[in-house]
């Protein structure tokens, strides 16, 4: 019996060691048949992304990491098995497929990329990380693919988006990221956004990427109280497609930004869809550091602390400027507006002082004239002292000047002058 016990123990230890070395199965893999053509995994990118360098996230993380704040990502789902999202993604819900599936899987990486910009955690050998790595992501799946096989955008069901927004609010999300936009003002989405705002949820939306097509109102970014986010490139210029209008409240990196991809690895993404999560992550940092602030106050803090952009503050292209997570978290803003400047009043006129000043001005002018007259007299006297003796000697008659001696005639040298004796051949010729 003792021998059998030792053998069982050895087998058990071997099994534990095998499980420790073997990769764990994906806990949030897409259900069978959920993805028609899922995107493959991508390679890991270890370099520091330009957006993370610009926002200097290490500096702000000393003050806030977004702990205790849930951010809803209403998108294509989120791959909860990505190494930098593992443990940071709640189950969520799938509103795209019928049934009660969770939203923590992704077929196309769009939602995974958005979620990683918000809350990706650190990973060894990888410089990329999210704006609020200790925030929690609530995935709300409302779409399957972003584009058709022909490259055309796939419309998202308005009712599905509306139900997804309301679900996120009821689940306790304090920040809502909507990386979607359209020209239509649909009552169902408008009412859902209003429902979120009535529950003190800050709604952040991408302004869209169709400016080259003429632009136009972008919803839900154009709704009152929604923080509309545009995109800038590495040089700080507005991305070509980033839409322009009064609904652009702030801008963030959105051109060639690095983010996670489903099934592991990273990819580069472009569009206002990926600028919005930089602002959503900043909102999570602020709500964690300043829990007493309301959603409108958080939005006001984000716009008030934005860095100046090319278009100037309040422009239709850049809004208040480029989001600055560090300033949004650390700066203390006055609750009151600036104090009014007191009215400017002219002091009473001092007549005696004016008379005295006028007297001194007249006296000064007289003194200057007197000094000028004296100086002129001195010059005239000096000239007279030089001229008078000569005039008396000549009896003031004109005299003829002595002729100058004739200049000696100039002797021109011959055309050819030898400074040294000529060579022997030439001497013979002479």
UniProtKB/TrEMBL annotation:
Keywords linked to the UniProt accession: Cell membrane, Hydrolase, Membrane, Protease, Serine protease, Signal, Transmembrane, Transmembrane helix
Annotated active site: 75 (charge relay system), 110 (charge relay system), 273 (charge relay system)
TM region positions: 367-387
Pfam family membership, one: Peptidase_S8
Peptidase S8/S53 domain segment(s): 66-321
GO cellular component terms listed in the entry, alphabetical order: plasma membrane
GO molecular function terms listed in the Swiss-Prot or TrEMBL record: serine-type endopeptidase activity
UniProt topology in membrane: Single-pass membrane protein
InterPro entries tied to this protein: Peptidase_S8/S53_dom, Peptidase_S8/S53_dom_sf, Peptidase_S8/S53_subtilisin, Peptidase_S8_Asp-AS, Peptidase_S8_His-AS, Peptidase_S8_Ser-AS, Peptidase_S8_subtilisin-rel, T7SS_pept_S8A_mycosin
Cell membrane is among the record's keywords: yes
Highest taxon of the lineage: Bacteria
Compartments it resides in: Cell membrane
Extent of the signal sequence: 1-28
Gene3D superfamilies, sorted: Peptidase S8/S53 domain
Gene Ontology terms describing biological process: proteolysis
Protein family membership: Belongs to the peptidase S8 family.
Protein name: Type VII secretion-associated serine protease mycosin
Organism: Actinokineospora bangkokensis
Source taxonomy: Bacteria, Bacillati, Actinomycetota, Actinomycetes, Pseudonocardiales
């Amino acid at each position: 019996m003792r021998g059998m016990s030792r053998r069982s123990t050895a087998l058990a230890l071997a099994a534990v060691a095998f499980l420790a070395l073997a990769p764990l199965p994906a806990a949030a893999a897409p259900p069978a048949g959920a993805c028609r053509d899922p995107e493959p995994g991508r390679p890991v990118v270890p370099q520091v992304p330009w957006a993370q360098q610009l926002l200097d996230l290490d500096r702000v993380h000393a003050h806030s990491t977004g702990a205790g704040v849930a951010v809803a990502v209403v998108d294509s789902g989120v791959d909860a098995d990505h190494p930098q999202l593992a443990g940071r993604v709640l189950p969520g819900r799938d509103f795209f497929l019928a049934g009660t599936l969770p939203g923590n899987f992704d077929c196309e990486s769009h939602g995974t990329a958005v979620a990683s910009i918000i809350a990706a955690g650190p990973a060894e050998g990888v410089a990329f990380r999210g704006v609020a790595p200790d925030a929690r992501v609530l995935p709300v799946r409302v779409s399957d693919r972003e584009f058709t096989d022909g490259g055309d955008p796939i419309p998202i069901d308005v009712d599905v988006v509306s139900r997804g927004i309301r679900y996120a609010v009821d689940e306790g999300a304090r920040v809502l990221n909507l990386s979607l936009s359209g020209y239509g003002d649909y009552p169902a989405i408008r009412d859902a956004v209003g429902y979120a705002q009535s529950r003190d949820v800050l709604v952040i939306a991408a302004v869209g990427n169709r400016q080259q097509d003429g632009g136009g109102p972008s919803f839900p970014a154009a709704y009152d109280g929604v923080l509309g986010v545009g995109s800038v490139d590495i040089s700080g210029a507005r991305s070509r497609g980033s839409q322009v209008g009064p609904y652009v409240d702030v801008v963030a990196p959105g051109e060639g930004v690095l983010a996670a991809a489903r099934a592991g690895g990273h990819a580069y993404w472009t569009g206002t869809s990926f600028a919005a999560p930089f602002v959503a992550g900043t909102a999570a940092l602020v709500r964690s550091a300043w829990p007493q602030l309301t959603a409108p106050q958080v939005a006001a803090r984000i716009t008030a602390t934005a860095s100046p952009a090319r278009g100037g503050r309040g422009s239709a292209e850049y809004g208040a400027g480029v989001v600055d997570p560090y300033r949004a978290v650390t700066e203390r803003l006055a609750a009151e507006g600036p104090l009014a400047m007191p009215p400017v009043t002219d002091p009473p006129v001092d007549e005696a002082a004016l008379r005295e000043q006028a007297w001194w001005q007249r006296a000064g002018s007289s003194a200057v004239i007197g000094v000028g007259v004296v100086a002129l007299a001195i010059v005239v006297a000096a000239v007279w002292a030089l001229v008078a003796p000569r005039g008396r000697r000549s009896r003031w008659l004109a005299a003829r000047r002595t002729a100058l001696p004739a200049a000696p005639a100039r002797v021109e040298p011959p055309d050819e002058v030898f400074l040294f004796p000529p060579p022997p051949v030439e001497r013979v010729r002479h």
